[in-house]
Amino acid sequence: xxxxxxxxxxxxxxxGLPVPGWEVxxxxxxxxxxxxxxxxxxxxxxxxxxxxxxxxxxxxxxxKVAGDADAVEAAAAAILALQIKGIQVRKLLVGPAAEIVRExxxxxxxxxxxxxxxxxxxxEGGVEIEEVARVNPAAIHRLGAHPHLxxxxxxxRQLAFAVGLGGPHLREFAKIAEGLVATMLVNDADLVxxxxxxxxxxxxxxxMAVERLACLDAKITLDxxxxxxxxxxxxxxxxxxxxxxxxxxxxxxxxFIKLDGSIGCMVNGAGLAMTTMDLxxxxxxxxxxxxxxxxxxxxxxxxxxxxxxxxxxxxxAILVNIFGGITRGDExxxxxxxARAVQAREVPMVVRIVGTxxxxxxxxxxxxxFATASSLDDAAAKAVAVAxxxx
Length: 391
Ligand code: GDP
Ligand code: MN
Hints:
The protein is α+β, with helices and mostly antiparallel strands. It has 3 domains: 1-20 and 99-242, ATP-grasp fold, B domain (D-amino Acid Aminotransferase, Chain A, domain 1); 21-97, Dna Ligase, domain 1 (2-Layer Sandwich), CATH 3.30.1490; 244-387, Rossmann fold (3-Layer(aba) Sandwich), CATH 3.40.50.261. It is built from 13 helices and 19 strands. Strands 1, 8, 9, 10, 11, 12 and 13 form a 7-stranded antiparallel sheet that branches. Manganese (II) ion binds at residues 195, 217. Guanosine-5'-diphosphate binds next to strand 3, strand 4, strand 8 and strand 11.
């Protein structure tokens, strides 16, 4: 689950990371009032940022710095009128703007290969890290955190040196990197990114300029499977931006991941679902989704799964592969019949049901003129044949 920058910043703050203050608003008028409060508190400039769950907001015009309340209001109105990568901007972050001296990248991901949290740092901050990885991979420095001890202090300092941060920033950077890993662990996150982590210039109480590190952007992806351990984080789900199919799947308790192919798959059990996708590929097709309706699914759940699959206009054929254990084959067949009676568009379907009540299922399907298959290879081949070749 992706969360908005403002919420990600709250999680960073909770681990003691240096994040400039902010407010979240939904209108240009409220942006103006938030800016007035920031100016009163001493801000020289104010930053207005689109809150959407995609990167590259800066490039798309979704981040603006303004020097007075009128300019903030105008910037806010302009950003609220934007669609960024197809997403309508509805919310804005407003806060004191930092005076940036230099931008860095700092991120942590769960790396499945090394089975560790890997911390990455780069002196090429502010630009998308995927771009740095493509153009200049050597500019990204990586370190695996210890599984039990977290990121050790010397590791954090090693990363600081690697990106050229020394002097007073060495300790600051080490604390931030350790806090980054703590944020990963405490929230069961898959990814935490600060881009840019910036050296910013501020005026100290004595009127002298001081430079310090600040987290100016934050991106966090939470592990969906661990959300049950963090009921308070569920509140950070942004329903405005959730894909309708993902939302229905979540509400129905269906495990669904959209893919790019043309063959919709409805399967029970994650292992069988992956096998089914492999067989579709082997038969020359491309799966349109991963979908596991779970054990003991009843007719209404089957109908919901069908709606979710058919909502994808790329789907040209549907392959149903059910192994009846707790799930009863006849119940699934009834769900398919029910779903087809009300479905929005006609798509060829190949059904394979084995196991509990398979013969009752077969009779029901035959009476309702469904194409069936006896083996899984046969089912995959038939589905690929009716869908046509993969792109
Ligand atoms: P992203 O484009 O979606 O990653 O959004 P960011 O929050 O990273 O903002 C993009 C860029 O806007 C940053 O790399 C900075 O150069 C700039 N920016 C963001 N916040 C501030 C700020 O407080 N002050 C200034 N001067 N620039 C900022
Ligand atoms: Mn950024």
